[in-house]
């Protein structure tokens, strides 16, 4: 966009743009995980010189690496047209999503061009990557193909691996993974996982699913008994 910016080797165009206050809309990018390039909302135009000739391509910026001397345009008629179409497809896939409607309004995307479906998930894969690569549990995966592609625990049954940490709930950009909590249990509704909560032995506050504490204890090599108190009572 005419500004000169610097990034580190291995960083993506999206990451560097965000670091410099340049807004590029994105749904499936999270800096904690490897970009998957699924939502295609972060489109930009990149011009680079190759064999003495300049080539411009429309590309996703979350998985395009910063390179010496490239020119990146984040807003052009071509980008906006494509971004609108991406949003219209997503809005047809998940009708009524407040997050998608807000983006749609911002970019002038309209409903009606594509047949609406009754899905809630945009298949961005963030929940899958966060569970596998950040939490280290791997309780979710893609299932099916084409119109039947979906994210589910293995075999579509409540995953025995899921520790109820709710990282997937936090990561979902369209808020389709709901969580319900009672004083004794946490339920990750979308995965049908229902787990008991550990209650703080001092103040009685239910602070984490017992499965999550067992996972951390195993990971760090501590005893489950070390997690008897909530964070506040530990201070
Ligand atoms: Fe780049 Fe989704 S944020 S494709």
Structure description:
The protein is an alpha+beta fold and 235 residues long. 27% of the residues lie in helices and 18% in strands. It is built from seven helices and nine strands. The strands form three sheets. Strands 6-7-8-9 form a four-stranded antiparallel sheet. Strands 2-1-3 form a three-stranded antiparallel sheet, covered by helices on one side. A two-stranded antiparallel ribbon has the order 4-5. A hairpin with a 3-residue loop joins strand 6 and strand 7. Helix 2 packs antiparallel against helix 3. The protein is globular, with a radius of gyration of 21 Å. The mean pLDDT is 94. Bound molecules: FE2/S2 (inorganic) cluster. The site of FE2/S2 (inorganic) cluster has 12 residues, from loops.
Briefly characterize the structure.
With 235 residues, this protein is of the alpha+beta class.
Task: Chart the SSEs and their pairings.
Blueprint: H1 13-19, E1 43-50, E2 53-60, E3 71-73, H2 77-93, H3 98-107, H4 126-135, E4 141-143, E5 150-152, H5 167-171, E6 179-181, E7 185-188, E8 193-199, E9 206-209, H6 210-220, H7 231-234
Antiparallel strand pairs: 1-2, 1-3, 4-5, 6-7, 7-8, 8-9
Bound molecules: FE2/S2 (inorganic) cluster.
Residues 26-29, 37-42, 60, 62 line the site of FE2/S2 (inorganic) cluster.
